[in-house]
Amino acid sequence: MTEHQAEHGYLLDNQQSQAVIRFGALGELFDPVTFRHVDRLGIGAGMRCWEVGAGGPSVPAGLARRVGPGGFVLATDIDPSWTAPEEDAGAGTVEVLRHDVAADPPPSGGFDLVHARLVLVHVADREEALRRMVQALRPGGWLLLEDADPGLQPLLCPDESGPEQRLANRLRSGFRALMAERGADLAYGRTLPRVLRESGLEEVQADAYFPITSPACTVLEAATVRQIRSRLVAAGLATEEEVDRHLASVETGRLDLATAPLVSAWGRRPSA
Question: pTM of the full predicted structure?
């Protein structure tokens, strides 16, 4: 979830106290989507998986349960502070490794699945990161990429019905401006099918998902704003009073908060 090149100053680094809250909310929102695709691709007993930019523990744990005791899951992140899942006697081995997908050599051994969620949108050298992930696939192995595309749906509150919703959307616009300044590609998700085909993968397909309102969206928004509030204020994108007012509105639970569409795309490395 959080691979990036540190010099670009990623806004949502794993060392901050809100990170674990964000990981939990992202897992609640998107794990069902991720594992719907993982299961459709036939990932099961005895397989080897590489979870790139894992961030939190939920995806590595879910993969480990699917591959079982004879399987293996490598979970990497440039900061794996929150990545290691709890041990499960019926699950495959999970190894956690500090690793930068765009700079470090790809892990050896070959993988039946390489998965990255909300990763490449933040990586400056996306082409190199993608090349290394494809290189790590076994013949016939699947690459599953999932990334946001805020350009497709830029609003935090699609139903902009009042001043609270307008403030929410303005702060979300400021957040995305800060991301773009640090090299995030806010229209990357829509490119995933093409980049998978251009990487030589076959059987490429894609779909997209976003919730329009959910308790997890409320938790995610509160944690995100608390994590970036000093940067919003320092950049002149919001005042302290506006941030406090927005957080108070979020905490009422009466705002219908959405996410950017999560585009999921998958393709298979040719067997020969």
Answer: 0.92
CA distances from 73 to 49, 67, 235 (A): 5, 8, 40
Residue-range domains of the chain with CATH: 6-152+185-211+260-268 (3.40.50.150)
Nearest to 54, CA basis, from 91, 86, 99? 99
Contact between residue 59 and residue 114 where contact means Cβ atoms under 8 Å apart: no
Instruction: Tell me the residue length of the chain.
Output: 272
User: How far is the CA of 216 from the CAs of 117, 118, 138, 144, 246, in angstroms?
Assistant: 17, 17, 36, 24, 17
Q: List the one residue out of 128, 169, 163, 120 whose CA is nearest residue 145.
A: 120
For the segment 113-172, what is each residue's pLDDT rounded down to a tens digit? 999 999 998 888 999 999 999 999 999 999 999 999 999 999 999 999 999 999 999 999
pLDDT in tens, 174-228: 999 999 998 889 999 999 999 999 999 999 999 999 999 999 999 999 999 999 9
User: CA–CA distance from 266 to each of 49, 113, 177, 198, 230 (Å)?
Assistant: 14, 10, 29, 13, 37
